Amino acid sequence: MQTELRREEIACLIPHAGAMCLIDRVLSWDDKAIRCLTMRHLAPDNPLRREGRLAAVYGVEFAAQAMALHGRLAANDCAPPRPGLLASLRDVECRVERLDLIAGDLLVEAERLMGDERQAVYRFAIRAADDDLIAGRACVLLQASLR
Fold first, then answer.
1. 35 with 1: CB under 8 angstroms?
2. What residues form DSSP beta bridges with 86?
3. Which of its termini does the chain have fewer beta carbons within 10 Å around, N or C?
């Protein structure tokens, strides 16, 4: 299991830049899963905010970035980040209405259930303290399969 990456390192690994990079820290990862922390749900410059609010459904983007990050780390290559397309979501549950009302860190977890170089299926969860906030499954198509 690999550990600890900071925001600057993360921004080099995924195609999300500036305020749109929503993951602050990788706590741990291995070939199957990743655990990340973020406080970006509280940032006033978060580009997903609407009228100063951050709806819980945008937590899917936090999870998608964790998945993208996991894909890069698990691939263990030096190629530039490959954009992906979030092709489908399944069984998504939002147990809160807004993320900007959550005071502490968000724990963002993603577990790769299956996949290859063209696509991946992940289970994801977002938690704060002992509270489950968002959970679901996602299918991601990678750039090479979009051509």
1. no
2. 140
3. C
Where do the structural domains in the chain lie, given as residue ranges? 2-146
- Spatial separation of the C-alpha atoms in residues 44 and 97, rounded to whole Å: 18
Beta-bridge mates of residue 35: 28, 109
Closest listed residue to residue 138, CA positions, set 99, 74, 100, 87? 87
| Whole-structure pTM value | 0.91
CA-based end-to-end distance of the chain: 33
Which CATH architecture fits 2-146? Roll (3.10)
Cα dihedral value 123, 127, 132, 138, nearest 10 = -20
Q: 42: helix, coil or strand? A: helix
